[in-house]
Amino acid sequence: MMINNFLVTGPPGSGKTFVVERAMSILREHGLRAGGIYCPDIRKDGIRIGFRIVDVMTGDERILARVGHTGGPRVGKYQVNIAGLDEISGRAIERAIRKADFVVVDEIAPMEIYSIGFRRAVIAALDSRKPTMAVVHQRGKTGFIGDVKKRNDVKIFEVTRSTREILPYKLAELVLECAKL
Is this prediction's pTM over 0.70? Predict the structure, then answer.
């Protein structure tokens, strides 16, 4: 079985999103089209107060989770916006499977897995022939996150101080190999 799904994990603040964003940039320099989602911080006065969810192909975005958001499940200090998550994630990932050269999912973590649409879209991406790069929650060992990590068509990379700078190039190389097939 060919491995075409590349998962990036590591502790909070280790640079997982940096690694995937840098790999995405390298792949774009090679003429590949990215699709999927990423979830940047929302900051106020330098303090993280939430996350946005952004469609890589269109730039469309919604609030993923925020301190003080009303409704939705609580993860840590954040309330998850299930409607926004459902609206962007399924559409963005499905579009990426159809139109992009590779799929990006940042990130498969406790907030996102509250969305059935997100989970379905992630499985569709992993099951597709498209190379998929995803950030995955480090501590998740069971449930949806554990099942994703245990798939036999994934390779997991851990971000550490010693791997943070080289991993984007390694991921880009692997995705390029898969995209050529």
Answer: yes
Closest to 38 (Cα-Cα) out of 56, 13, 60, 22 = 56
Residue 73 placed within a domain: no
pLDDT tens-digit profile, the chain (181 residues): 679 999 999 988 889 989 999 999 999 999 999 999 999 889 999 999 999 999 999 999 999 999 988 888 999 999 999 999 999 999 999 999 999 999 999 999 999 999 999 999 999 999 999 999 999 999 878 899 999 999 999 999 999 989 999 999 999 999 999 987 6
The C-alpha atoms of residue 133 and residue 19 are separated, in whole angstroms, by: 10
The CATH number of residue 95's host domain is 3.40.50.300
Q: Which residues of 156-165 are buried (b: 16+ CB within 10 A; e: fewer)?
A: ebebeeebbe
The tokens for 97 are 């499977």
Q: How far apart are CA 121 and CA 86, in angstroms?
A: 10
Q: Give domain status of residue 63, yes or no.
A: no
